[in-house]
Amino acid sequence: MIRTAMTPSSVPCVVASADNAGACWWLYMLETAQGRLYTGITTDVERRLAEHRAGGRRGARALRGKGPLVLRYACRVGTHSEALRLEAAIKRWPASKKRALCGAAATERHEADIRAVLAAAMP
After folding, report:
1. Entry's PANTHER family (predicted)?
2. 91 vs 88: CA distance, rounded Å
3. What is the DSSP string of 40-98?
4. How would you write the pLDDT of the chain (123 residues) with one tens digit per residue?
């Protein structure tokens, strides 16, 4: 089972790149009422979550009518390019692997795991 709802301030944060001083891109995962996971990237997790929950034009179509939405994972990953690559890589994962990442976020091995994913996603 996935941990309880989190906010970006309570979510473990890993800086996956040392050269991200100018950008602060986050990878996040939301869980819908049906238990499905949605993965996305943003520069402001709280704003993006509010947009998804509002269900308007700014929220993802895939999430409209699927609430309540719960933030399950958020991780600062570096540049926009790194965030896009990581998002694409994680979207190809099976749900079980995504849930394992959400569950591993509080462990010491989390930083190594996310760095390995980033390294594999980079050309």
Report:
1. UPF0213 PROTEIN YHBQ
2. 5
3. EEES-HHHHHHHHHHTSTTS-GGGTT-PSPEEEEEEEEESHHHHHHHHHHHHTS-HHHH
4. 223 333 444 444 444 444 444 568 999 999 999 999 999 999 999 998 999 888 878 878 788 887 799 998 888 888 899 899 999 999 999 999 898 888 776 554 555 556 666 666 555
Give the number of residues written for the chain: 123
pTM (two decimals): 0.71
Is 5 part of a structural domain of the chain?
no
CATH of the domain at 65: 3.40.1440
Kindly state whether residue 17 falls inside one of the protein's structural domains.
no
Q: How far is Cα 119 from Cα 110, in angstroms, rounded to an integer?
A: 14
Which amino acid, 52?
A: H
